[in-house]
Amino acid sequence: MLLPGPLGALIEALRALPGVGPKSAARMAYHLLQRDRNGAARLSMALTGALEQLRHCQRCNNFSEAVVCEICASPRRDHRQLCVVEMPADLNRLEETQAYQGLYFVLMGRLSPLDGIGPREIGLERLIERARDGVTEEVILATNFTAEGEATAHYAGELLKSRGLKVSRIARGLPAGGELEHVDGMTIAQALLDRRAV
Amino acid sequence: MLLPGPLGALIEALRALPGVGPKSAARMAYHLLQRDRNGAARLSMALTGALEQLRHCQRCNNFSEAVVCEICASPRRDHRQLCVVEMPADLNRLEETQAYQGLYFVLMGRLSPLDGIGPREIGLERLIERARDGVTEEVILATNFTAEGEATAHYAGELLKSRGLKVSRIARGLPAGGELEHVDGMTIAQALLDRRAV
Questions:
Q1: Is the CB of A24 less than 8 angstroms away from the CB of B19?
Q2: Regarding beta strands A55-56 and A63-64, do their DSSP bridges make them parallel or antiparallel, or are they unpaired?
Q3: Would the CB atoms of A44 and B51 count as touching at under 8 Å?
Q4: What number is the ipTM of this complex?
Q5: How close is the nearest chain A Cα to the Cα of B171, in Å?
Q6: Reported pTM
Q7: Residue A187, exposed/middle/buried by CB under 10 A (0-12, 13-18, 19+)?
Q8: Are B51 and A41 within 8 A, CB to CB?
């Protein structure tokens, strides 16, 4: 391949994106350079901006610009409930239903032993610590109803209960194998109401 | 959606990539921020680097760091032949076959009236100018054998012949509807040999 250095570097760098192989990366590079140079400049700045300005909220682990995010800092939320989700997108789906007023903890992942993601990688120790703040009365496990999400809920549930915490799981109102991000709001609201003690 | 500003900006910016919708963009953003921050930093730098360092070769229009690219500047190439391709990836495929020793002109596109891409957008005037340097003896049209590539070859061919230039088209050794980038080297070499005058 006869590629000028910066072009080769760009194609290689685009492969950091999930699901992007060499051919897609090349197509993306040509598109940006040829048809959307402003888009390329914006993407470069957005990446730098996100890396510099985003941190994890000290309380819920979600992405945040502040040390403590808006939800965790809000006095209008019910600080006695702590809902555990896998990803920020799941938190957003729950918020959209307006069926939940408590706080969150975002694992930023799920247990996935085959991918080398164990309890340490998804910060379960931080979740325990967070839940033992003396204010939390109930931890609601809202990980996905996939095999990995269920395993995560089971493992986290056992851990939390062994520390004397009240733990519940959102109801299996979601279709089996379903993912929070893709389910309609009514089903999610139902699952929240029907949560059962574990 | 409760997204911190820099995260929303990153997701929005990722949509500049071809074929990336809102869901993919969000997944990409989370992946980069959570699992591959180095990759994100490298991508940002690669974008800036490519935008700053890459220009179009004054002679062949391909991406290049120098004013005139390596191929156009090489005395070992046959400067009497000028092969016209749609994209840099096509040029690379031709080079890999080692069946061609002449020079190139990269259109960086193809005629596509429905997308608003006419002769001006793909720089056919620059091709004419380039081909009339007094050294070029033959222009070989190697655009794809798709409807758009064929239309481009036909239009460019007529234009070049009207200026008294000898024009040929690579042979239809490629399968109908095929694209240069995806065809084996032997077929491409055959098509080069079997080019016919138009």
A1: yes
A2: antiparallel
A3: yes
A4: 0.71
A5: 23
A6: 0.71
A7: middle
A8: yes
